[in-house]
Design a protein that fits this description.
The complex is a heterotrimer of chains A (618), B (172) and C (101). Chain B is mostly helical. Chain B has 6 helices and no strands. Classes of the chains: A mainly alpha (618), B mainly alpha (172), C mainly alpha (101).
């Protein structure tokens, strides 16, 4: 089958699924779910065939023209888009299968699957975009899908607030992105990706564009990335986004949507390579975010929150790799992270469903680990990958990133610390779940005594977890093929000696976690608790949210309130006043229509007198 | 000069009576006096025939008719006073019109006739005009009078009610 | 007296008649006001006839017609007044407000 048909099928199948499910079957939940899942399946099949063929082509059509520049719309096929598209399609399909189990009793099931299909379409159209305008449009639509899905349970005020927060914060980033795109268009006079990538080809920026301008464009684009990929300072929306259903967290907020920012940097990597100052900034911000986020994950008790902080941190790692100049490192980690993070979220959903609580201590004490064997297998696979333990995938990709940061000794150290913390918090989570100590010093809610049903794992749960576990274990060895597909000829394979520090650091983290949480009779409070002040700061997420609330949010709400008052009292009042005034004046004038003919005659007399005077005096 | 002054005074006196008296009969009386003054004014202005017609028709006919009207529609002799607002508005309008027209008159220049022929003031001359130049108007006027009388009868006539249960008022 | 004087006199009469029409409540009183206004016009014509007209008959003829038409008008007006009285048993101008609105 030709690549045109395949790519169109891949991108458009979810759109059809969304439209059909939403319009026709919102109340026929199972039909809607089936339609959406089938469309996801079509996308995966098409993506798989594209992966095999790996064409390099563009399929596009003209939309409109600005001045002399035609703006096109279409599908760009190359290594990056096909790999990313395959990842998105595969994970979405697995999530859809998982959601059949997870959302089984939810009254909004049909709507959920429709929105998932909508998201898939937006994400694929974003990935395969052939022009930057299309990229931007679908970047925004992906944000909309995130809003709809985070606030899926719209009766919950916390969910609504989280959806709003996510949308607004990413919107702040989007302003930067938009301005950056405008400046880029003015500098290069085109929005077509192939042309732009040709202009900024690795030989260096053309002389026609000032280097300052290139830096500015790259910086503004990075602002958009900060918003979408939840880096400091626009990271606070992602932990709150866990209010959405777990499949949403697994799909959007770990594997795909937040990776859109990283993908944008990878997509425009030639441009970024011509902006070295911005690249330094990217590395700095990413490292700082990775560290910041790992510290917050160390003390969190809600399993989904831990994974959210972890996602922020790992996104930081990806940006570190890209910022350090290695397209392969960042992209590879994006791929592996998508697999193991989605896997971990799926296990979280399973555990939470069993223990009726998000708290890892409660999950542990409910004995969930023993009751859900496949889930626990997935937890271990994903956890080992996340911590960067060889030979799982996470180790290879993380190692590529650290290897690329040779020019940044300070940030490389930061990356090592972050990797250590990653291993620590990951295994803290694992140990608290798998080896609960009922007598330990921490409190938790007592697990529910009554159980409606014995927890069991259906195939809709097992298959996605097993598939992703396989990928989390094995993808590390596909690095060479991925790099080849990206157009990078030789992948930097480090020697064992160079890989040693990373392995040692990861193992140290695991050991420390075992000491704190895993061994028999452990106090299970973590070493941070010995400094209560720091523990408090970390639990409150470094008070960043509080600062934002006190300043920016309060300012924005104040402005909104002022506008509202002006609108209702001022403008509406003026309009109402005109209406009342007119009807009041009408009422007054109506008195002259009292029906007494003498007033009419008087009026006529006055008018005649006036006219006479006027004519006489002219 | 004295005669004109007296005539003006008389007429205005009567007019003021007619306009301000609450009692309608007194008002009618004032009207009669005013009309008499007007007739005298006609006399002074060298039109005795018109003065005679004025007395005959206006005072003798119209005033009497109005008196009949008062008689047939009496609700009591004293009419209730009008509101001050209405009187003020009326006064304002009357004064406004007066002022406007006065300004017109004041600034007007009435040219004297250039004819050398002495105008003929006789009644015969007038009569010849009526049958000669203004013949049509004269005839039309008589038709108008006829129509007016018939119309007045038609409007004011009482028709016997076809409904046998309705009571008939007896007024005369 | 000059023609201006007579015309002013007729204007005063006219204003008085207008005042009566506009301010009185009795319909007959309003008719009286109308008659005063008509007479004022007649005086105007006769005055112009005496001082300005080149043919002494014109003004007189016009006034004769005015008088005649006034008579016709009074006849009809009185019949209307009588009709109003018959229906409402009063002839108050304030009560005749069916044109209201």
């Amino acid at each position: 089958m030709g690549y045109e048909t395949l790519s169109l099928a891949c991108v458009l199948a979810p759109l059809v699924g969304f439209a059909v499910a939403l319009v026709g079957f919102r109340t026929r939940h199972n039909v809607a779910a089936a339609i959406a899942t089938v469309s996801g399946g079509i996308s995966v099949a098409a993506a798989a065939m594209l992966l095999v063929q790996m064409p390099h082509a563009v399929v596009e059509a003209r939309w409109f023209t600005i001045g002399q520049t035609p703006i096109e719309f279409g599908i760009l096929l190359d290594g990056k888009t096909i790999i990313m598209g395959g990842v998105v399609a595969l994970i979405t399909f697995l999530i859809q299968l998982y959601s059949v189990w997870y959302m089984k009793t939810d009254p909004g099931k049909g709507r959920f699957f429709a929105f998932l299909a909508f998201f898939e379409w937006s994400m694929l159209a974003f990935v395969f975009a052939s022009s930057l305008l299309q990229t931007f449009i679908f970047w925004e639509l992906v944000g909309l899908a995130s809003f709809l899905l985070i606030g899926f349970w719209y009766e919950k005020p916390s969910a609504v607030a989280a959806a709003k927060k996510a949308f607004l914060m990413t919107r702040i980033g989007d302003v930067g992105l938009f301005i950056g795109l405008i400046l880029l268009f003015r500098a290069t006079n085109t929005l077509d990706l192939t042309q732009i990538l040709g202009i900024f080809a690795p030989e260096g920026a053309p002389a026609s564009i000032a280097p300052d301008r290139v830096e500015l464009i790259a910086l503004l684009l990075f602002v958009g990335v900060i918003g979408k990929s939840a880096q400091f300072p626009l990271h606070t929306w992602l932990p709150d986004a866990m209010e959405g259903p777990t499949p949403v967290s697994a799909l959007l907020h770990s594997a795909t949507m937040v990776a859109a920012g990283v993908f944008l940097v990878a997509r425009l990597h030639p441009l970024f390579l011509d902006a070295p100052a911005t690249m330094n900034l990217i590395v700095a911000v990413a490292t700082f975010t990775a560290l910041l986020s790992s510290t917050m994950a160390m003390v969190a008790r809600d399993m989904k929150r831990i994974l959210a902080f972890s996602s922020i941190s790992q996104l930081g790692f990806m940006l570190m790799g890209l910022g350090a100049g290695s397209l392969f490192a960042g992209f590879f980690h994006l791929t592996t992270h998508a697999f193991f993070k989605a896997l971990l979220f799926m296990t979280a959903g399973s555990y939470i469903h069993c223990a009726h609580s998000n708290d890892i201590v409660a999950i542990g004490r409910a004995g969930a680990a023993r009751k859900l064997p496949v889930t626990t297998f997935g937890l271990l696979a994903g956890g080992l990958a996340l911590a960067g333990i060889p030979p799982l995938a996470g180790f290879f990709s993380k190692e590529q990133i650290i290897g690329a940061m040779g020019h940044y000794p300070l940030f490389k150290t930061g990356a090592y610390v972050a990797a250590f913390l990653t291993a620590y918090y990951t295994f803290r989570m694992i140990f608290l779940i798998m080896r609960p100590n009922v007598d330990s010093a921490i409190e938790s809610e007592a697990p529910h005594a009554e159980e409606h049903h014995a927890p069991h794992e259906t195939w809709f749960l097992r298959v996605p977890i097993l598939v992703l576990s396989l990928l989390a274990i094995g993808t590390g060895f596909l690095g060479g093929r991925i790099g080849h597909a990206l157009g990078i000829e030789h992948v930097h394979e480090a020697s064992i000696g160079a890989m040693a520090p990373a392995i040692i650091i990861a193992l140290t983290g695991v050991v420390l976690a075992w000491l704190d949480f895993g061994r028999r009779g452990a106090r299970q409070v973590g070493f941070i608790a010995s400094v209560p002040a720091i523990q408090k700061i970390l639990e409150n997420r470094w008070y960043i949210d509080a600062v934002y609330n006190a300043t920016i949010v309060r300012l924005a709400v104040g402005v909104a309130r002022a506008c509202f008052t002006t609108e209702t009292r001022g403008l509406d009042g003026a309009a109402d006043g005109v209406a009342y005034g007119t009807s009041g004046a009408g009422r007054i004038i109506a008195r002259s229509h009292a029906g007494r003919f003498q007033s009419y005659v008087a009026l006529a007399g006055v008018i005649v007198a006036a006219l006479t005077l006027y004519i006489a005096l002219r | 000069m004295i005669a004109e002054g007296l005539v003006v005074f008389l007429t205005l006196f009567g007019a003021i009576l007619a306009v301000t008296q609450r009692n309608i009969v007194r008002a009618l009386f004032g009207l009669g006096v005013a009309l008499g003054g007007v007739a005298l004014a006609f006399l002074l202005l060298n039109c005795p025939f018109v003065a005679a017609m004025e007395v005959l028709i206006y005072i003798g006919g119209i005033t009497v008719a109005l008196a009949f009207g008062v008689m047939l529609s009496s609700t009591g002799r004293i009419e209730p006073p009008e509101g001050a607002g209405r009187r003020a508005l009326a006064a304002v309008t009357a004064v406004a019109l007066f002022v406007a027209l006065a300004v017109v008159i004041w600034t007007a220049d009435f040219a004297q006739p250039a004819s050398t022929v002495e105008p003929d003031w006789s009644v015969g001359y007038l009569g010849r005009f009526l049958l000669d130049r203004f013949n049509v108007v004269f005839e039309l006027l008589s038709v108008v009078l006829l129509v007016a009388i018939i119309g007045a009868i038609a409007i004011a006539a009482r028709y016997d009610s076809p409904d046998p249960t309705a009571s008939e008022e007896d007024e005369s | 007296m000059t023609v201006h004087g007579w015309v002013f006199f007729s204007l005063m009469l006219f204003a008085l008649g207008l005042y009566a029409v506009l301010s009185r409540r009795n319909l007959i009183a309003i008719l009286i006001g109308i008659e005063l206004m008509l007479n004022a016009a007649s005086i105007n014509f006769i005055a112009f006839n005496r001082f300005v007209a080149d043919d002494a008959a014109i003004g007189r003829i016009i006034v004769l017609f005015i008088i005649g038409l006034a008579a016709a008008e009074v006849a009809i007006a009185l019949s209307i007044v009588l009709n109003v009285y018959r229906q409402r048993h009063e002839i108050d101008a304030e009560a005749l407000d069916e044109l209201k609105g």
